[in-house]
Amino acid sequence: MEKVIAGKTIAVNEEGYLTDFKQWDKSIADELAAEAEISLSPRHWEVLNYLQTEFKNEVPLSIRKIGKSGVVDIKEFYQLFPKAPLKTATKIAGIPKPASCI
Amino acid sequence: MKHLVILGAGTAGTMMANHLSHELKKADWKISIIDEKEEHHYQPGYLFLPFDIYTPDDIIKSIEEFIPKHASLVKGKIDKVEPKENKVKMADGSELNYDILIVATGAKIAPEETEGMKGSEWHKSVFDFYTFEGSLALRNKLRNWEGGKLVVHITEMPIKCPVAPLEFAFLADSFFKHKHMRDKVEITYVTPLSGAFTKPKATEALEHLLEEKHIKIESDFAIEHVDNEKKEIVDYGGRVIPFDILVTVPTNKGDEVMERSGMGDDLNYVPTNKATLQSKEYANVFVLGDASNIPASKAGSVAHFEAEILTENILRYIKGEPLKEEFDGHANCFIETGNGKALLIDFNYTHEPVEGSFPFPGIGPLKLLKESRMNHLGKLAFRWIYWNVLLKGTHIPFVSATMSEAGKKYN
Asked: Out of B157, B194, B236, whose CB is closest to A101?
């Protein structure tokens, strides 16, 4: 599937997650954040950068790991990205939705 | 003489002891299996105990009964493994040196990971059903309960038998119907996932069943704490769900022995190659069952399929041959849906559960992802199969260790 985000045609899956991280840039993050009614602050960016680094290092992401990362605690993670923070934050970061364990 | 040591005499460890005692030459290999417990529990039975469907006698036998003659059962607590020294240290100070180690130490609940969970209401109005004690306490509570809010809850993934909490909710619906008090009970299913299950097609089928049975679903709920006074669970986003009875599946973790041995990840699961079942760090260490970190279900059926493949790989390892990268994450689970019916799901790493027939393509007699009486009989028959076939390491006819795609409706 394709979707026009911030004026660019971007490849996404059915749930709207980018399928090619190379297509991601900050303007895309801003627009995806706006869709989730979030305006990105420097604190949001610290978390997004952390998620992207973990993704590049192929570290599986979970709420538990993020809570223990030292970057953000779970409470604040929820304040920054309300409701389903890991799903929302990974979408904005342009990385795949973490596979929840089966 | 060489020494193969198995840690844990649960489902996975017992199956490996039985497989290997047939395969390894007695003159060359000694097999030891270590466990501190006396009893072997049929863990799927914990689901039925609260509803008086099974009695404790149906679930409990002695560990010894299932250990083959040629393996020696070491009863005792393990202090730690020293994988670099190829040594297991016991709590009593004794040591076992090994040539090959099989880790089958399983997973267990860790309610202490969630604030307030193991608080003043633990086993009074807050229950688990993943331990014998929890399941029995819940049975005693349900026998006299007059109704109210029943909340069935998963703390975080991964958990053993990810379908068990759903089955609990379905069986509860059926249980209260039979007691003519379903109208007095409100059942809510609370999950950290976005839906009833992790796989889309099965989620669709299961959510339909929840709706049909008037079970409310609360998804994306990441619990922060249990409030014992107000009898509520509260999530990080501030959502509050009140309960009269909370049936929770606490965080699951691997055994502390793996933590003490420096062999586990942040949840004490051992990093394992998902296709060969060899430890990622130590070539002579193999891991199966709930103890590993592979992305397969933590379930007895998975351990059973793993055991068949791991046996072959251990023989290859002994001969110095390359290991077979054969394990595909195959899982096969009955899902009790209440009223004498059940679903069956069959899936692996890459194929989600879909509709179809099992084990004979196009024939069945079991139906995949559809409720049927036959599936329920299959589930009940499984207890007999577990004690008499599975633990002994006997191959179950027509059910292969790797998943078959025949007879299934993939798009």
From this structure: B157
Instruction: Write the residue in B236, B266, B296 that is nearest to A75 by C-beta.
Output: B236
Q: What are B114's strand-pairing partners?
A: none
Question: Measured between CA atoms, how close is B179 to chain A, in angstroms?
Answer: 34
Between strands B364-368 and B356-360, the pairing is: antiparallel
Residues in chain A closer than 8 A to B295 (CB atoms): 99, 101-102
* Cβ pairs A/B, distance under 8 A: 45
Chain segment B59-102, per-residue pLDDT in tens: 999 999 999 999 999 999 999 999 999 999 999 999 999 999 99
Q: Are β-strands B100-103 and B285-287 bridged in parallel, bridged antiparallel, or unpaired?
A: parallel
Give the burial class of B140: count Cβ atoms within 10 A of its Cβ; 0-12 exposed, 13-18 middle, 19 or more buried.
Answer: exposed
Condensed to tens digits (0 to 9), the pLDDT of residues B296-316 reads 999 999 999 999 999 999 999
pTM for this one?
A: 0.92
Q: What is the DSSP string of B115-162?
A: BTTTSTTBTTTEE-SSSHHHHHHHHHHHHH---EEEEEEE-SS--BST
Interchain CB distance below 8 Å, A78 and B295: no
Burial category of B61 from C-beta neighbours within 10 Å (exposed 0-12, middle 13-18, buried 19 and up): middle
Of B236, B295, B296, the CB nearest to A74: B236
Q: Read off the pLDDT of residues A20-51 as tens digits, 9 standing for 90 and up.
A: 999 999 999 999 999 999 999 999 999 999 99
Which chain A residue lies closest to B294 (C-alpha atoms)? A101
Whether this model's ipTM surpasses 0.95 comes out as: no
Non-local (6+) Cβ contacts of A19 within 8 A are A11, A12, A13, A96
Domains of chain B plus CATH, in order, are 2-106+255-319 (3.50.50.60), 111-251 (3.50.50.60), 331-390 (no CATH)
Restricting to A residues 53-92, those with a Cβ less than 8 Å away from any Cβ of B are 62-65, 68, 74-75, 77-78, 82-85, 87
CA distance A98 to B205: 23
- The DSSP output letter for B323 is P
How does DSSP classify residue A59?
P
Chain A residues with CB-CB distance to B195 below 8 A: none
Closest alpha carbon to B170 in B384, B375, B387: B375
Angstrom distance (rounded) from CA B106 to CA B303: 10
pLDDT at A25: 96
Backbone φ and ψ of B144, nearest 5° = -115, 5
B93 — contact with chain A (CB < 8 Å)? Answer: no
Contact A74 B224 (CB under 8 A): yes
Interchain CB distance below 8 Å, B220 and A84: yes
Q: How confident is the model at residue A102 (pLDDT cuts 50, 70, 90)?
A: very low
Predicted pLDDT of residue A100: 57
